[in-house]
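Form 12-C: Joint structure prediction
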Amino acid sequence: MILFFLTSGLFLGWSLGANDASNIFGSAVGSRMITFRKAAIIASVFVIVGAVLQGAGGAQTLGKLGAVNAIGGSFTLSLAAAVTVYLMTKFSLPVSTTQAIVGAIIGWNLFTGNRTDAGTLSKIVATWISGPLLGAVFGVLLFMSVTVIKKVSGIHIIKFESYIKTGLLFVGALGAYSLGANNIANVMGVFVPAVALEPLNIGPFSLSSAQQLFLLGGIAIAAGIITYSKRVMQTVGANIVELSSEAAMVVVLAQSMVLFIFSSSWLSDLLVSIGLPAIPMVPVSSSQVIVGSVIGIGLYKGVRNINFKLLGEIAAGWIATPLISGLFTYFSLFFMKNLFMIDVGHRISEGSTEISPASMAPDPATSEMMRYIFLIIITISLIAGIYVLLLQSKRNRELKASEEKFWKNMK
Amino acid sequence: MAVFARTTKKVILRIDEFFDDIELGILVFREGIKSYIHKDYEAYERHLHKVESLEGNADKLQRIIENDMITHSILPQHRAEVVMLIDKLDEIIDTIKKSMNEIITEMPVIPPELDKDFITLAESSANAAEELIPAARAYFKAPYTVREKLLKVYYFESETDKLSLRIKKRVFQELKDTDLAQKSHLRYIVHHIENISDLAQKAADMLSVMAIKIVL
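Section 2 - Result
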């Protein structure tokens, strides 16, 4: 049953992968600097690694906002957030998964009578504004540096572009890692307090209950990237193709840095150790950070026709998305509880720590099933990988033979 | 990464070699016209052979460069323009070969009083094309300087226009003893020589826009 409830989170993860991978590799794939296959493999691997290794920070913050204490509640609010994202995207309204999930948690808090922590909420909302602003600042600084290096070095543009191409791969990997680390909280964060699994040992590594959920969410994001992001990437690439290749790389790097900052507990601890305030571990919208850095670079280059309508739509999305998602969650929870008699959570008494997954007994049957699921996924991935490699090698051989024939006859 | 670097290096070298071929072709064209005017047909034939070999090599390089740029996705945002620029430069050496072949086939009789004018015309037209090459090279290394380099192309092209007009006026107004067929033939040869600078100007116009786009 738990696995069924997780499907809404997996669906959210799939749609996040399908949409947000384009923020990382869209310009590179759209302009054909990198093939979709290469981009999809890099993005998938690093999204999963980022989610498993560094996904805890954002999930903890969402947990503080509202500790959903029944898997039925997690399922419902995750589904409500996913449907909100889907519908708003369908009607071409700017939407962020982060804002939808925050609205859904507040909706759950209202329904179950739990208090929404104003401090955590204000911290999250502050990052919605500071994320794009930081994106703009990083974008401008990085763009200035790259432009100066290009001009001073007098490098051949073809050589420069080949460096950019390599850079896009590394920056894309970093972007995917940061996306996984930062946005996995949106996908699986609400399930963490409600699901307890036995630790999973893979060789020398041991994955905690939360990390197993993040791994599953990461795989869902990867599935979204592989199955559905190609078209989105090509559209995004065509839309921002006016950006030069170096600007495209800078935008992705700026976005990666912002996402990394808001999910790196190590960096936050470092700041605290030197007497500076801690960085809030909050999932931020990668799309809005991208818009921030594109506008920043545009302003630096002296572009005057800033799309204020787009900025207004983003600002409106800060209010509309959580509101719609919250209302939708509230009514969905009502139906789930009263119509299907599903436990969607209850009020937590002040000072209670019952939400900690450590305090819940892990379910051996579910943990066992989870192991089999991971085994099946790994096996399928390996078979698919070998099949794709063989197909690619056959294509390369045929292309090489055809090329040799062409150039032989040309002589 | 090594594959990237190797292909990139090869394409850069090939583009440089292509520019060298065009530059040399223009130089040989200038010398060829001088040889023809001085009635040194043996030297002219030698120059023609050289141009033919350079043109053949430039054609081959053009195909390889285009192929590599598409296959290895080099400079995707500016690839179409770079390919078109290379095509325009190739058109210059194609036209040089075609014009030199027509001159040696038709053997126009150039009156001695026009010798100097024809040499100056060929010099000026070749200069316009020659000045295009450093600008085209600069596009790849210092695009900020392309437009100032192109000024010389426009200057020589306009000089060529003036010279060609002057020669045509002299042919039709001063050469009283020359028949109309020969006059028309001379005008045709003037067009052939002048054509090189016109092609250089067209390529310069394109290069100028390309430079703005890549700098912005």
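Section 3 - Comments
The interface with chain A takes residues 1, 4-5, 7-9, 11-12, 15, 60, 63, 73-78, 139-144, 214, 216 of chain B (CB under 8 Å). Chain B has a mean pLDDT of 91.
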